[in-house]
Amino acid sequence: MTPPVLHSQRLTLGPASSAHAEAFIAFCATEDSRFIGGPADRRDAWEGVAISAGLWALRGFGPFWLSAGGVPVGRAGVYYPDWRAEPELAWTIYPAYQGRGYATEAALVARDWAYATLGLGPLVSLIDTGNAPSIRVAQKLGAVLEGPHEPNGGHPVMRWRHPAGVAA
Questions:
Q1: Nearest 5°: phi and psi at 53?
Q2: CATH of range 6-118; options 2.170.130.30, 3.40.50.2300, 3.40.630.30, 3.60.15.10
């Protein structure tokens, strides 16, 4: 399945493109990617793009790749590989575009789409305890802290539960 193209007020959420892959690879090469398991080399970052694209084929949903004015700014959507116990609403915004509300805007569109179209929910977000910006996004989306989540490669993460089937 090819991801649908969704729109928010300022963003386009859609399938991965070569520009999205290159932007993600560049992001993953930096310390800024630490909350998603980075830094990572080009191969590992490219595999991350491929996993996200493959989820659409295998599950019928996955992360959307985000653009603002045609420029890749991150990704957001439902991440649910085989090794996870339940689907996760996840988001990543590249540093040059942080602080603009893009994560909240994109996650809300992706979450509402997942609830309305797929019947998923309530979703979780797994957030590193040191990732204050993502914690604020979860709170803005109405998610409630449930507690620690294990395992996550040894990193301390907390499980945030989103409200079922409602917009924030």
A1: -65, -40
A2: 3.40.630.30
Q: Are 61 and 55 in contact (CB under 8 A)?
A: yes
Is pTM beyond 0.85 here? Answer: yes
The C-alpha atoms of residue 5 and residue 65 are separated, in whole angstroms, by 10
Domain boundaries, the chain: 6-118
Distance separating alpha carbons of residues 143 and 85, to the nearest angstrom:
18
Closest by alpha carbon to 150, among 82, 85, 63?
Answer: 85
What's the length of the chain? 168
Report d(CA 139, CA 25) in Å as an integer: 29
Asked if 72 contacts 21 with a C-beta cutoff of 8 angstroms, the reply is no
Q: Which of 124, 158, 118 is nearest to 141 (CA)?
A: 124
Segment 66-114, tens digit of pLDDT: 999 999 999 999 999 998 889 999 999 999 999 999 999 999 999 999 9
